[in-house]
């Protein structure tokens, strides 16, 4: 019974966080505003989190850990994230659209995108610690992974107007084309 209540409380807190992120932003959000919106007492909040920063850190780490699990490097495609793993990320984003949209359209945007980029680099560099390409580190990772992170975040911020198939096509073109090709100069 206690676990069910704790799970329900955590979901209420998360729902309140999403709502308040959209309506007032993270900087103005307080534990009081979270507990009021979640219709729980402060003690319940503090049973689950130390403060609003701990709540945000928990949410962010969960998202990035889940995305990392989707982006495993596969033996048949050891050079870059496979289409199958990118589809898993897209499905994860669709499932958590409301939360991700709120984060990426709030004052947490810059922090989240930076951590998302770092996650992509960390996953890829775990399997590839050498760079034999024409652009050396840290520039190579910046060019590749900031672009992929930006494609995903722009898609979310635009309320996923393109279908998952269209998004995969955009990522494929990005991965296979030069900037001159992409801009058709």
UniProtKB/TrEMBL annotation:
<protein>
    <submittedName>
        <fullName>Transcriptional regulator</fullName>
    </submittedName>
</protein>
<keyword id="KW-0238">DNA-binding</keyword>
<feature type="DNA-binding region" description="H-T-H motif">
    <location>
        <begin position="30"/>
        <end position="49"/>
    </location>
</feature>
<dbReference type="InterPro" id="IPR001647">
    <property type="entry name" value="HTH_TetR"/>
</dbReference>
<dbReference type="InterPro" id="IPR039532">
    <property type="entry name" value="TetR_C_Firmicutes"/>
</dbReference>
<dbReference type="GO" id="GO:0003677">
    <property type="term" value="F:DNA binding"/>
</dbReference>
<dbReference type="InterPro" id="IPR009057">
    <property type="entry name" value="Homeodomain-like_sf"/>
</dbReference>
<dbReference type="InterPro" id="IPR050624">
    <property type="entry name" value="HTH-type_Tx_Regulator"/>
</dbReference>
<feature type="domain" description="HTH tetR-type">
    <location>
        <begin position="7"/>
        <end position="67"/>
    </location>
</feature>
<dbReference type="Pfam" id="PF14278">
    <property type="entry name" value="TetR_C_8"/>
</dbReference>
